[in-house]
Amino acid sequence: MAVIDADCHVIECEETWEYMEGEDRRHKPRILEAADQSDPLRRNDFWLFDSNLEPKRAFPPASSGTTPESSELRDVEARLKHMDELGTDIQVLYPTTLLGLATLSRPRTQIAMCRAYNRWMADIWHQAKGRLRWVATLPLQTMDVALEELRFSRDNGACGFLLQGLMGERVPIDEDYFPVYAEASRLDMAVCIHSGLVNHALSGIFHSRATALWMAKVPIITAFHALVLSRVPERFPDLRWGFLEAAASWVPYLITDLGARLHRTGTRKLDEETDVLRRNRFYVACQTEEDLPYILQYAGEDHIVIGSDYGHADTSSQLEALNILQRDEGVSAEARRKIVDDNARALYGL
Asked: Model's pTM, two decimal places?
């Protein structure tokens, strides 16, 4: 049995943008340093690109065993060594600065940043000998380039591409995304809907910690609901969909709501509760503090995955998550094995 961490992160660093070539280098982000440099692990430096300022992410505490070198993957061997200590065989990597933020920039800047990130990750994948798989970032405002990047990424270790529940004025059921869905399906890659909000107007409203749930998590939940109602997954019958870093306790509520909504409108009947995820090829990442036996009644055992959020220091971060789950006697041994191995392998086509 392998142990697969379905949601980990890499933190972009200066080296990321060194992969820009030619005209792309005109769009290289700059660092604005914080006035207080006394604590290099906690200072609030910023990336500046176009008119956007994005804080450079603070690292987890040193006591976690995570270092800046491993979080930024400036030392791939250090990352692999830490994975060994955690008992993890494979990590699937998501970006940090590019968690959708590039969609707020100009199309040409977006192309340059996504292209550099994908080539950086391709290099890391080769160094890691297959243990660090990754999710591509695509310049979705420029679809022909996005499709080129998807193909390049697939040939260099990517197993999915990043999407969010709200990107600009687009949601995942928007027909503008259908070309990339079709190509991802052909390439056997997953659509990975990750936490975060990329919308200027709503970012202005949900700008405080008190409204972070609206900004980061609710768009994922809404995307799940909309995809089922719109029947978009039925148009791409081989495409897999992941819903990452919003926990999974909302799954029973949404399935119950969908059943009531479809029954009331008389448009169609919802199949058995545990069949919703299977029929739509949906996979949802859980967290260890949730009531997993209850969630599994609705989700089934074959469509729940788990991630540690490695590299970040937020509410979803739990480096020992996979080990904690494997010791959870409230969940059957077979279900635990599926969550840490089979299901992540199925979602990402590993």
From this structure: 0.92
To 10 degrees, what angle do helices 143-154 and 178-186 make?
A: 20
| 284: enclosing H helix or E strand | strand 282-286
Using one digit for the tens of pLDDT, what is the confidence trace for 260-274? Answer: 887 776 666 665 555
Cα first-last separation, the chain = 13
Question: Cβ distance 217 to 254 under 8 Å?
Answer: no
Q: State pLDDT tens for residues 99-153.
A: 866 556 789 999 999 999 999 999 999 999 999 999 999 999 999 999 999 999 9
What mean pLDDT is predicted for residues 189-206? 77
Instruction: Report yes or no: 278 and 237 within 8 Å, Cβ to Cβ.
Output: no
Residue with tokens 């909504």, as numbered in its chain: 261
Contact 4, 92 (CB under 8 A): yes
Query: What are all long-range contacts of 183-186, with beta carbons under 8 Å and residues at least 24 apart?
Result: 183/147, 183/150, 183/151, 184/150, 184/160, 184/239, 185/236, 185/238, 185/239
Q: Following CA atoms 116, 120, 123, 129 in sequence, which dihedral angle do they give, to the nearest 10 degrees?
A: -140
Tokens of 41: 């692990």
- The beta strand positions in 19-142, using DSSP E, are 30-32, 46-49, 52-55, 90-94, 132-136
CA distance 45 to 31: 7
**pLDDT tens-digit series, residues 230-286:** 999 999 999 999 999 999 999 999 999 988 887 776 666 665 555 899 999 999 999
